[in-house]
Amino acid sequence: MLVLACDPGLINATQAAVAELGAPPPVVLRTQREVLRAVVTSVSGFSHLILEDGDLPIDQSLVDAMAEASPAAIISLLTPEAALSEDGAFLRGLLGGTRHLAHDANRASRNSNRLQAGLQGNSLLLRYQPIIHVRTRRLVLVEALARWRSEPVALTPVNFIPAMEQMGLSRPLAAAVTRIAAWDMSRLPARIDIPVSVNLPAPELDKRDVVAWLGQQLRRSRFPRQRLMIELTETAPVRDLSRMARTLRRLKAAGHGVLMDDYLLDDPRQRLLRLDFAGIKLDRSLVQSLPRSARARNQVLRMARRGLVMTAEGVSSPALLRTLRVLGVARAQGFLMGRPLPVAALPAWNQRWRSAEGLARPAKPHASRT
């Protein structure tokens, strides 16, 4: 169990309730510094999160990141008064599963006007997942991943992106992601002078004005074009190969590299490999199959011999990272290196990763899974 709180009454009441239930003591994080360290070291695995309902001295993006790291966790937003009510019986029932708090945190609004207004306002949030070079282990890229502001914590993409795509909001969403990513990256310290990748489906990438449109999104932040990469998502097929080839050439001439995302074992998009992509991102399922599947290894080796720059997604162990190096995979992304992070946590993550500690396994939670 994890407690994010400052109020002594709420903390003491939770510790007492957990003790009465016969469970190990909860992990308690009280300060911004403590939570930042937990986020950077990938502390996770909690089944219950107690959040103090009040003005915590902790950035909400870090609270969101802690909740996202334990996706199966029950989240309870509590005031100190609620924790102490009924002589602690309410809290014991909450932790024991006999009481519940209702939170409408399952999805964003299904109303098109509200979603569009949210894109123009501050509802869209971004997290950044590090991508490292397999041989040097240096940070070389981050992928921008969308989240949606909600209570008590932000929503993950499955809860709002499908609805936006159905409502024809793919381009406004991509525009907002690009603008926010450019602004966030331009505020990072000079030592983190790396590109960021954003996702675009084929129909948006294929539009004739895509180069000018991307430039419009970067204008206010003055973010360099060569630091914005595009990930071609697999949600829509590429129907016209020659037209896509021309699009890739135009984007490359403007400074944007394009990555093919989520490449699978025996992927039906193999014909696209002859196009001038800046790289190929190997799907988590393909990457996880490499230790046990000769067919998967052979396909990756063939792509490496063709000189394709590959990024492995879903890398979760040092052994898998070593396998990627042997197979000629250039880059790696996954929980071994880091979870999706708020931009504020990237400098701390980078400092830790560059140290000897950062090249070891992610930290494990010092908590029970109660």
Tally of alpha and pi helices: 15
Low-pLDDT regions:
357-370
Classify the fold: give the CATH topology of the largest domain: TIM Barrel
Distance between the termini: 6 Å
CATH homology superfamily name of the largest domain: EAL domain
Neighbour order of strands in the largest sheet: 5-6-7-8-9-10-11-12
Question: In brief, what are we looking at here?
Answer:
The protein has 370 residues and is of the alpha/beta class.
Topology:
Elements: E1 2-4, H1 8-20, E2 27-29, H2 32-40, E3 48-52, H3 60-69, E4 74-78, H4 80-84, H5 89-96, H6 112-120, E5 124-133, E6 139-148, H7 161-166, H8 170-186, E7 196-200, H9 202-205, H10 210-218, E8 228-232, H11 241-254, E9 258-263, E10 279-282, H12 284-289, H13 294-305, E11 310-312, H14 318-327, E12 331-333, H15 346-354
Parallel strand pairs: 1-2, 1-3, 3-4, 6-7, 7-8, 8-9, 9-10, 10-11, 11-12
Antiparallel strand pairs: 5-6, 5-12
Helix pairs in contact: 1-5, 2-3, 8-10
